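<amino_acid_chain>
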Amino acid sequence: MWSKRYSPDLTPPWKRSAPVPEVPAEPGLVVEEVTTGFCGAVIRCEKTAQGPTVTLEDRFGKCRVFPMEPRGFLLDGRVVTLVRPLAAPPAAPARTASGSLAVPGARARVARAGRIYVEGRHDAELVERVWGDDLRIEGVVVEYLEGVDDLPSIVRSFAPGPDARLGVLVDHLVPGSKESRIAAEVTGESAHVLVVGHPYVDVWEAVKPASVGIPAWPSVPRGQDWKTGVCRALGWPENTGAAWQRILSGVRSYKDLEPQLLGRVEELIDFVTAG
């Protein structure tokens, strides 16, 4: 026994309407309503009890609201169905160069009595590049020492206390070094002083080589000026100031720095702002 299956739509093929494209009704899209011929730019879409509507504004500033019916509009002479535009995904929260959540419009806090000291100008510029926004919000000032030999007298002159903590970042802070002996002397005198450091000969090395465009930081023989030796080994002009600017330009965020420096600076900020 032979049977014939019919499509649910019994309309003859020659009478069926061809499908039309669905177009998101984005603001500014210019369309023409097919029934009235009203032409205008999309101002907004709204959800109502009778269904979604679209508001169009013509070139004279006149606005009209239309239901978003199927096949209800012309776009460049072609029939289309307007649909509500997809909601934009929520924007990811902006972050500072240090990875902290940015605070739009935040004003710098009045400077605290506490301070962070670093060894030299390059250290200070690197800290500013990555943590500058955070430090301004926290009201922490960074100053540089030009070496650590005079650190004990500087600390005594600063007179740290509960409301004026002092954090110090030292280069090449490794066991048995001159820097480690000075750090022990300073921290032994006051509980309101914290001295931390990284293992690198100079803060240059705390920048990841890949961020500078080199395979690795070269080894410089003892007794030779380290920065000059680096420039010589890399084939750079022996101008350490220009070399530093080249290095600093490769630092865009905390991701360009080695973890051994990142953790120490964060530790100092937490210490100075505690309480």
